[in-house]
Amino acid sequence: MTRREAAVPFRTFILKVANRCNIDCDYCFVFNSKDQSARRLPARMGPDVVRAAAERIAEHAEAHGLAAVHVVLHGGEPLLAGVAHVEETLRTVRDAVPAATEVLFEIQTNATLLSEPWLDLFERYGAAVGVSIDGPPAANDRHRLTRHGRSSSAATVRGIELLRTRPHLFAGLLAVVDLENDPVDVHDYLASFEPPVIDFGFPHGTHDDPPHRGDPGRPEYGIWMGRVYDAWLARPDWRHSVRMLEDIVALSSGVRGSVETLGLAPPTSVVIESDGGIEGVDTLRSVAEGASLLRARRLRGLLRHRRPQPFPAAPRAAGHVRAGRAVPELRPRGRVRRRLSAAPVQLCTRIPEPVRLLCGPGVSHPARPEFSATARLDAGRPRAGRRLIPNERSHDPMTATIRPAEKSDVPALAALIEEIERFYGTPEAGIQPLDERLAQVEEALFGSPPLAAALVVEDGAGSLAGLAAYSFLWPSAGSSHSLFLKELYVRESLRRQGIGVRLMQEIRAIGRARPGCTRVEWTTDRFNGDARSFYRSLGFEEYDGKVFYREETGTP
Fold it and tell me: Which of the listed CATH numbers 3.20.20.70, 3.90.226.10, 3.40.50.960, 3.30.300.30 matches domain 12-375?
């Protein structure tokens, strides 16, 4: 195929800042598809990759005179990267991109880890937040359970309600269609959160391995979306858009849609993996190992050169990519290089004929035979991924999740308090009875008002393996206040893997994000040489300006 089309620059850059997730969606194309390579990638995008990506995005924007670029933080679950790391990522990208180009930051999250410090960070950078949720709890929990099989709905709804307190940051909701869920119930439930946009995605599949259908002879996904369309128009007071439906209407009128998954618009997005690998549309992971990788030349020496080459826009040519040039190349490719999912194929119930040509069992466009299903991967599969920097062997601290403590954690926290007491050498007789610990933990963290707050460390099996407990003290300097870190503890099995560093980063980020908080302070025992060495390794000096007093007031 030698046909060429106009050069198309990339406009959306998806950064996989975290390559782990705290829930286990069974339809996830990253971790539960045919391509399992994400499990072998670094858990978090390192600073070198962030800087390299920022430089390339900046040079690409300047070379093509882009008025704006979209930078989307994605995962896995991007909030697992931590407030401090995400803040550094946003700052690095914004500082690198020329002032003439607007950087529009977006985050796609399951919202279970959203907190006020996160929203404060997004406020500073004008980052829009999209949330993934499949509908009411019964619908959402068909596929979106935690790694230990529990419902994720309540935690997601808590995050959405927190996000609604800053509606200017709320980008919208994304749901995956399940034919077992009632489309009107799903739509109306999502609409009750008053999002500006509701978007629907289909389960990923191929013509060889299509998503579930009760009757393959009927366009069931199209019928499902048709009922959403009716529900959307049924109430004049709805103010949200439904992106997929609006795109279909636009396409039927001859207007290009907003996303490349519908219609023949060339893809203008590129994915940068946590190791610097470059991908096209990463949903192609559902096809086969390596199907999402772009055929781009290796970006050699990127960090060694003062001014690396930009991402060049290149003419699209189905099944043809030039090689042998000295300048690293990266180009979007036509849909001839993709396996189309069977679900969008069915979206034909009410669509006018021009759009119907994109649908139907054959997926063949009469004017563009290269888009037929039989041509999907005939041009060959990319040989290898491309990296922004060499992959380095490192610890993987992100097998554990750091999140705010929840009321359901009280029993596990009570057990962890006993573990901490034994760590400090408390004799058996001095260990509180379990019922006392349960009552005191609940009162301290969830009383009215609470006495303290805590971050918890949840290991890969869903067990609590550490915590950072803190309170705010007043006054500090003048009329300001301080954050006092009372306890930092990580279970032995997770020590020396970066968990303590991440906890300290999160605590400091909470302090910086709180207006009027001028200090973060903590103490440790003089005999605890390991703890003192740990804090010194982070660059903290011991403060000798105060004397510490204590009086025991009686039994707990």
Answer: 3.20.20.70
98 has a pLDDT exceeding 70? yes
Give the integer Cα–Cα distance in Å for 439 and 332: 58
CB 257 within 8 A of CB 265: yes
| Amino acid 184: pLDDT | 95
Q: Is 385 exposed, middle or buried (0-12, 13-18, 19+ CB in 10 A)?
A: buried
**What are the sequence ranges of the domains in the chain?**
12-375, 397-537
Eight-class DSSP state of 8: B
pTM over 0.70: no
pLDDT given for residue 476 in this prediction: 86
CATH architecture observed for domain 397-537? 3-Layer(aba) Sandwich (3.40)
Contact between 293 and 331 under an 8 Å Cβ cutoff? The reply is no
Cα–Cα separations (whole angstroms), residue 409 to 53, 412, 415, 463 = 38, 5, 10, 10
Q: What is the mean pLDDT of the chain?
A: 76
29 pairs with which residues across the strands? Answer: none
Query: How far are the Cα atoms of 125, 156, 257, 321, 458 from residue 146, in angstroms, in the given order?
Result: 30, 11, 34, 42, 12
Q: Do 176 and 183 form a contact (C-beta atoms < 8 A)?
A: no
